[in-house]
Amino acid sequence: MADADPAQTGLTQAVTRFPAAAAALLRLAGKDPRFREICEEYGLAQQSLARFEARPDAAQRPEIGDYRVLIAEIEDEIGRFLKAAGQSR
Fold first, then answer.
1. Of 2, 56, 67, 79, which one has the greatest count of Cβ atoms within 10 A?
2. d(CA 27, CA 42)
3. Share of the chain above pLDDT 90, in %
C-alpha cells in the first residue's frame, strides 16, 4: 500500500491545526507552489514524528523533540502565509 501524499496530508493537518483559516489554507494550496511545499514538509514532519513516537524506545529518541520543534517552526511559517493572505490564525 502506498503512503498518503505528504502535501495533501500536510494540508489536512494544517486545516485541523488552523480550522478558522480552512478556506484561506485551501486557497493558498491551490495557487501557491511554495505553500504546497510547506504543506508537504509539514506532512512529512508529522509522519516522521508519529513513526518515532510509535517506537518502543520513544522515550530515548531525541528525534521526537527535534520533530516537535520543526513542526512548530512550520506552523509559524503557515501562520506567516495566512497573515500575508489577510487571514488570522
1. 67
2. 17
3. 84
